[in-house]
Amino acid sequence: MSTQTLSSHEHAREYFRRAREKSRLSHAYLLVGAPGSGKIRFSLDFCRSLFCADSAAPGCDCAQCRSIENGNHAGVTVYGPLEGKQVIDIDTIREVCERSHYRRDHTFIAIIEGAERMSIPAMNALLKTLEEPAGDFIIILTVASTGSLLPTIVSRCHRLYLGSGGESAPEEEAAVQALREVVLRGWGSGDPGKIISDMFPEAENNRERAQRVLAMLLEWSRSGMAEAQVSALDALNDFQEDLLELCRALDGNVSPDLVVEQAVKRARPVGELLAASIVR
Predict the structure, then answer these.
(1) Confidence (pLDDT) at 5
(2) Which numeric CATH code is attached to 10-161?
């Protein structure tokens, strides 16, 4: 089956399977999907795939899978707001950060459910851990929308879209192709603001659209580095630094439209490399 015909869940599972096989799992993932799209179920199944000795087959009742399902596995913890609260506070995130640096003989996976509910201090605390991750630590953020997250958090995570579980994500595919065309061929005679708005019609505002453009370009550049010739690595490294600089600018309330304009401008010299790195 071509990846073009996979559902968003199947595509994400295939992405993780290949990353495991190549020992190229990231330290941070951002799962984006509407309520009811199965983000926590997907996250727990990913955890089972790492710890289960029987390939995490559906219905597996091994000790590892049971403990993950029951919420008492030493290597997997799901975090959210404390009881009676609506916000994920800094103390919760500090616990995640501290545990990420504990000595252990296994991987520790922290799942932050509804990460868009983190307070600003909590986000800033998490950002420090994302910038200096421990080698045996994986964090999974689940969100309905990235609009409330700091762009610098979004930029440091590998982002995956989860639809309803049985349907593909045509809007996401269309956005990928539209941005690819913009990077390679420019804005043409169209209005940049409208083009970006049409790419991400479900986004809450221009700031979220800018975040998604930056996250997509970062993802492409990271994928491109795996395939690029040595002579191209410096260009991709410089481009990633440019994108992180633009993420910080967006954090500092620079116009989202200006950030997108600069991101696309800086992407153009490495456009062919980025286009070749899009894996679908």
Answers:
(1) 37
(2) 3.40.50.300
